Every structure is written in structure tokens, then in C-alpha cells.
Amino acid sequence: xxxxxxxxxxxxxxxxxxxxxxxxxxxxxxxxxxxxxxxxxxxxxxxxxxxxxxxxxxxxxxxxxxxxxxxxxxxxxxxxxxxxxxxxxxxxxxxxxxxxxxxxxxxxxxxxxxxxxxxxxxxxxxxxxxxxxxxxxxxxxxxxxxxxxxxxxxxxxxxxxxxxxxxxxxxxxxxxxxxxxxxxxxxxxxxxx
Length: 193
Hints:
Blueprint: H1 5-8, H2 27-36, H3 43-56, E1 66-68, H4 76-84, E2 92-97, E3 103-108, H5 136-143, E4 152-157, H6 167-180
Antiparallel strand pairs: 1-4, 2-3, 2-4
């Protein structure tokens, strides 16, 4: 686990309003454009890197993380929890991609989605509960004029999370490990929040 520490605890990210796609800030959009100019990495290579990192933590690799869209339903997370002996159905790291093969975001929890605004005027819309209607990764993908590949997501159940770590630590570690291995992530800071 010692080799994994540098990836787990690097929380480098923009702070305050600069971490947002709102408030007329461009930091995350600029980083997304930079990432979009890099060479994509194959889904299999991303799976391999993710499993390498899990093994650095002493965790089990996930042999078949690709989950097809037709399996996405409200029972998906409970099924993953039960099949993998997870303590919590949110103990997963998931990844979604664009139609041109870019890794769009690295995330955790039970909320796989392909949300995206219809146009620029939607970026700052809020719900009745005063929350942002569209998530950051969807706004970034729309801003880049890309589309989500809604046919699948990669899902990594986090079995036997090492003592002292939380799912968010592992999410951050995976994202940082992918970046270190030159995998572009369009929502570059998605795994660091």
C-alpha cells in the first residue's frame, strides 16, 4: 500500500469559485480543453491501470467492469453490493466515456448518469431545491461539443476497502494513477472532490 499513498492523498485542485463551471470561471473548461488535445487511451488499458492501482492497495482486481446500459436500473447498485459483499451500495468507482473514446469522469457512489445540458443557457439552471440542475462533467462534455457514450460504464466494486480509507480516497487514487499514466480525463478534477 505504500506505493499507492502518493496517489491517494494528492488533492491538487482549483479552490473556491475556480473549482466550478459556474460563476463565469474557466479553470475547469481550460483544463478540459487541454485534456481533449491529448491522445485517448483504450478502455482496456484504463481497466488494466485501475486494476493495477487496486492491487497496489491489496484489493481484488475487477475482471469484468464493463456494465452495459440495459443493466442500469434502480436494482443495479443493490445487485453489485450483494454480488461483491460490499458494506454499502455506494462503494463503487465508476467511469463514463465520450463517443470519441475519452474518459469523461471518474466518480464514486450509486449515481451513474449521462446527464448533459441542451445548450449554454442550461449551465446555470437550478432545481426547485436550489441545486445545480446539470452536473459538472455533463457541462464540460457539452462545452467541448462532445457526447456521452451511453452504451456502457466501467464499474469497479470496492471490495475490502483497506482500514483507514474511504471510497472517496480510492476514487481519488484511481484518477490520479490514471493521470500519472497519461490517461486524459476530460473532467480532470472529478475524482478530487
